[in-house]
Amino acid sequence: xxxxxxxxxxxxxxxxxxxxxxxxxxxxxxxxxxxxxxxxxxxxxxxxxxxxxxxxxxxxxxxxxxxxxxxxxxxxxxxxxxxxxxxxxxxxxxxxxxxxxxxxxxxxxxxxxxxxxxxxxxxxxxxxxxxxxxxxxxxxxxxxxx
Length: 146
Known about the structure:
Shape: globular
Radius of gyration: 16 Å
Low-confidence stretches: 138-146
Distance between the termini: 10 Å
CATH superfamily: 2,3-Dihydroxybiphenyl 1,2-Dioxygenase, domain 1
Number of strands: 8
Number of helices: 4
Structural class: alpha+beta
CATH topology: 2,3-Dihydroxybiphenyl 1,2-Dioxygenase, domain 1
Strand order of the largest sheet: 2-3-4-1-5-8-7-6
């Protein structure tokens, strides 16, 4: 299978320290930082390259879903980008294999703006987000299910 990694999401305790590290030490560009600081978006991101970002989920976000500080882990989920047709084929395969879609389809922001996402888990419980962007040609490189 070949596809793009859109983003990786980390649960963070101190987003300002993480922003400083990624922006000033690794020299990654920030995304939506000022909007985050104004309370307009729920999390900031840093850009690895044209196709991939790291989302920094503040404690308020990941604590809502877990309800606790225990066992939060650092990893939240990863997201793959597919063409719309391949994404639809994936949804059909998930259903055929009785793999639950936990959320979606829903619009979500990512490395290329807002796309349509579904969320499901692998056999060990890792959360995977699969998305497509309307009119996004780069995701046509993805071969999953084609």
